[in-house]
Amino acid sequence: MAFRYAAIMLCGAMALIFVAQNMIDITGSMLLTKDVLSTPWTLITSIFIHGSMGHLLGNIFALGLFGSILERIHGTKKFLLVFFASGIVSGIASSFFYDAALGASGAIFGVLGMLAALRPKMMVWTYGVPMPMFIAAGFWLVLDIAGAFYPTNIANMAHIAGLAFGIAIGITQRNPQSEEKKPLSEEELDDWEQEYF
Q1: Is residue 193 part of a domain?
Q2: Contact 155/106 with Cβ under 8 angstroms?
Q3: Which of 5, 90, 94, 191 could cross-link 101 (Cys pair, CB 3.0–4.6 Å)?
C-alpha cells in the first residue's frame, strides 16, 4: 500500500514552524501584497505561518481530518497538488484584498471544495450539526461571503478563492461511476488484507 500520511506530515511541519516563529524572525516568509511580485515564494511559505495557537490548531485539525480523507480517496500526489495549488490561488486572491496574509486556510478550503465535488453526500459535522459535504461547503461559503462585508481578522476572500478552486478541480476529476459499489479485485483484496491483518 502507498504511504499516505502527507496531510499529517504537513500538520506536523506547521506545528514545528509555529514553534520556530517564536525564536526567529519570519516576516520575510509572510505574504505581503506590496512585495508579492518580487517575492513570489511567499505564496508558498505563508501557508506554513500562523498568527496564533488558535489559528494553528483550527487549521491542523481541518487539514488532518479532511486532508487525510482526500488523500485516501485521491492519492498523495493529487492531494498535495490540490493543497499547494489552492494555497497559491488563495494567496493571489488575498493580494487583491489585503495588505498581508498568512496561514493554510485557503489551501485547506481548496481541499474542502474538492471533497465537496468528489464526495458531496459524505456526512460531516459543521458547528455541531451533521450535514452532507456539499451543504457544509455552501454553509462555509455563505459565512465567508458575509465575513467579507464585516471587519474581521480573517482573510475571507482567500477562503472563497480556495473553495472555488477546489470545487472546480474536483469537478474535473469527478468520475460518475466512482461512487458505485464495485466488487474488489483479487489484488485489492490482498492489499486490504495486508493493511488490516
Answers
A1: no
A2: yes
A3: 94
How many domains does the chain fold into? 1
The whole-angstrom separation of Cα 17 and Cα 55 is: 13
pLDDT tens digits, one per residue of 58-95: 999 999 999 999 999 999 999 999 999 999 999 999 99
Q: For residues 166 and 96, what is the distance between their CA atoms, to the nearest angstrom?
A: 19
Domain of 63, in residue numbers: 6-174
Task: Quote the radius of gyration of the chain (alpha carbons, Å).
Answer: 18
* β pairing state of 123-126 and 100-101: unpaired
**CB atoms closer than 10 angstroms to residue 151:** 5
Q: How far apart are CA 197 and CA 195, in angstroms?
A: 6
CATH number at residue 72: 1.20.1540.10
Question: What predicted TM-score, i.e. pTM, was given to this entire model?
Answer: 0.84
